[in-house]
Amino acid sequence: MRLTDDEQAMLDGRDGPAVQRAMDLLLRYGRALGAERLVETNNVVASISATTPFMRDYARQRGGMDGVFSEFSLDSDDVVPIPRVRAFTTHVQLGFDPGNAALMGVDEQTVRFYQQGEAYITGLGVQATNTCTPYQVGNIPTRGEHCAWMESSAVIYCNSVIGARTNTEGRESVGAAMLTGRIPYWGYHLDENRRGTHHIQLAVPVESTADWGLLGYWIGEQVQDRVPVVEGIGKLPNLARLKHFGASASSSGGVEMYHLVGVTPEAPSVAQAFGGNYPVAQLRYGERERRDAWEKLNHTGRDTQVDYVMLGCPHYTIEQIWEAARLLEGRKVHADCELWIFTPRAIKSLADRNGYTRIIEDAGGHLLTDSCSAMSRAAPKGTRVVALDSAKQAHYLPAILGVQAWFGDLAECIDAACTGRWNGGLS
Ligand code: F3S
Predict the structure, then answer these.
(1) Distance 315 CA to ligand 1 centre (A)
(2) Distance from Cα 247 to the centre of ligand 1, integer Å
(3) Which of 176, 377, 379, 392 lies in disulfide reach of 25, CB 3.0 to 4.6 Å?
(4) Residue 57 C-alpha to ligand 1 middle, in angstroms?
């Protein structure tokens, strides 16, 4: 790989051993990918902190959190002192909400280790946003900006809706990126890989958030890790719908970028979305395809008695919390059911101030931050049947927790929380 003088100096140890190891890691990674060079980045979404007992024991034996960073982010056998980050970095979600640790079944010792981890990351200059939706809370790159992001639902949003450029990075590459301000120049950093491959024509209206989740789920299965171009969009989707669509497509397939003709920034027209590519397939999304996606997402649902309703995957926007609070106001969560809603901590503080948290709590629900049930592997004790408004969560949770899942829209989920019964269906 070709290096600039600055990159060579980092590799030669000018900025200390941690930066040297970070540069070495990026070179090994870049060579394996066939990248010819690195690209500058000042926008990283990373996981550095740790919440598991395994990491806690590791930190105790190997020099605290610098030991954890050296091993798990820099692939270094030696413990090296970790300097403050060079690139602007925000933290992704974690294993639990420290404000609701007991509710999520997390012990005191783990909470203390978590607090140590949070003090460590903020000490390095990392923003403790703790969310899978960094673009909601202060990390909004500009169109064309080169980024190094983790978390599939955030990556697809970054590429497709914002028009910034990232691949789906891992803990190691983002650890190296935040210390060097570099990431290999390959994949979705390059124009040619951002062009559409599959043409999808909508033959039914796609309007509600659940509709967008179903469409994303079907498209992901069809195109896998390629780049769909969707034509025929009627009503303009809002942030929440695009968030659900991308999360869904990246779960059923490995989609990292899509184009919505007339909506997303690199698709003002079908021709521009394909950028000269000839579509490898022409697909139609109609009633049958929509039903097919719904049936797949609901294939584990058998019992209509619901124990748990989880909302906020990807983390809820303030608009979604507002909607949920309006549907819950004056009602009570059923005695045999639990309602947990997940959002970034910055949005929770807004919900607190606007009175939505109080409405949710008065109804018997909980507004949580930092994590989700799939990430934390936590659900209310004894949960057998879950209701969800997220295709991504419906895709993963039955496998992770061995539960039955129902997928539907927000109103159906709130109704399930208040009646303890699933009455949803495909409208
Ligand atoms: Fe976020 Fe958890 Fe969903 S981390 S995208 S809420 S699986």
Answers:
(1) 6
(2) 8
(3) 176
(4) 26
Distance from Cα 312 to the centre of ligand 1, integer Å: 8
List all residues whose CB is within 6 A of at least one atom of ligand 1.
93, 132, 153, 247, 313-315, 342, 372, 374-375, 392-393
**Residue 404: enclosing H or E segment and its boundaries?**
strand 404-407
CATH class of segment(s) 298-419: alpha beta
Question: Which numbered atom of ligand 1 lies nearest the CA of 133?
Answer: 1
β-pairing, 198-202 with 182-184?
A: unpaired
Collapsed DSSP state (helix, strand, coil) of residue 255? coil
Closest residue (by CA) to atom 7 of ligand 1?
374
Please give the CATH superfamily to which domain 5-189 belongs: Aconitase, domain 3 (3.30.499.10)
Backbone phi, psi, residue 190, to 5°: -100, 135
Residue 2 near residue 36, CB atoms below 8 Å: yes
- pLDDT at 50 exceeding the cut of 80: no
Burial degree of 37 (CB within 10 A; 0-12, 13-18, 19+):
middle
The residue extents of the domains of the chain are 5-189, 195-296, 298-419
- Supply the DSSP string of 301-312, one letter for each residue: ----B--EEEE-
Given ligand 1 and candidates 252, 388, 393, which is best to mutate, with the most ligand atoms within 8 Å of its CB? 393
Measure the CA–CA gap between 400 and 418, rounded to whole angstroms: 25
For residue 52, what pLDDT band results from cuts at 50, 70 and 90?
confident
Q: What is the DSSP string of 123-186?
A: HTT-B----S-GGGTT--PPTT-B-EE-SHHHHHHIIIII--B--B--HHHHHHHHHHSEEE--
* The residue to which tokens 């210390």 are assigned: 179
Q: What is the pTM of this model?
A: 0.97
Which residue owns the Cα nearest ligand 1 atom 6? 313
* Closest listed residue to residue 374, CA positions, set 152, 95, 50: 95
Q: Report the nearest atom of ligand 1 relative to the CA of 390.
A: 3
Token pair belonging to 427: 């409208």
With beta carbons less than 8 A apart as the criterion, state whether 32 and 181 touch: no
Amino acid sitting at position 316: Y
Phi, psi dihedrals of residue 284, rounded to the nearest 5°: -120, 135
Q: pLDDT digit string (tens) for 368-383? A: 999 999 999 999 999 9
